[in-house]
Amino acid sequence: MGLSVGLIGLGVLSLIYRDFTLQWEPVPTGLQDRAMLALASGAILTIAGLLLVIGRTRAWGALLGGLFIGLWVVGLHVPKVFAQPSSLTTWLALAECLAMSTGALLLFRGAGDGFGQTCVILFGIACVVFGLSHFAYAQFTASMIPTWLPRRLELAYLTGAIHALMGLALLIGRWRRWAAAIEAAMMTSFVFLVHAPRVFAHPTDRTELTLLFVAITLSAAAWSVAASRAVD
Questions:
Q1: SS3 202
Q2: How many distinct helices (H) and strands (E) make up the chain?
Q3: CA-CA distances (angstroms) from residue 174 to 163, 166, 178?
Q4: Measured between alpha carbons, how far is 123 from 129 in angstroms, rounded to an integer?
Q5: How far is the C-alpha of 7 from the C-alpha of 5, rounded, in Å?
Q6: What DSSP designation does 150 have?
Q7: How far is Cα 103 from Cα 224, in angstroms, rounded to an integer?
Q8: C-alpha span between 53 and 157 (Å, rounded)
Q9: pLDDT tens digits for 185-209?
Q10: Domain segments of the chain: what residues?
Q11: pTM (2 decimals)?
């Protein structure tokens, strides 16, 4: 259900604003018929999310969402990484889309074959990048943490370490299911502790809404990894 909520939310935002999903879908601004393509993108995300709601079409929704976001990775983010290989921000955007895509694809086909193993490894790489970004941008990460929580900078480093360690566990093949579950639980906590309150405070802010739906999609992707036979 989380994946469908995330995809529908992102799709509806694209339809409302006639624009792509901010830095996660960095389509060049000068592209011809950009607004129409953004509407098409929003429609695809919304359809994928709606297909996920229905049991009989759930796998097809996961496949559509996973492949479509995978196109963002290959067509939009990989060229940016090649152009700016030292930019961790560029790597982070790629990693977030990679995690969303692989999580959805594992929901489509979560077997322990080569396809499933590849998805788990790619998700693990994404988690390591998440961890590195928490350390590199610790002050910004801390600023996102609610003020009522103590030692926010230390929490930024702690969550970064958890991201990295869980990613490494997925890569080396040890305690994979536990690692994916811990990663999923932490990502879910971000939805409720960080993003939902920010949207409640600024309900019409497009950026905050996008961050919320991306966080929901990422957490759902992590739970998909944790539930997959590919982590056995």
A1: coil
A2: 11, 0
A3: 15, 10, 9
A4: 10
A5: 6
A6: S
A7: 6
A8: 36
A9: 999 999 999 999 999 999 999 999 9
A10: 2-231
A11: 0.96
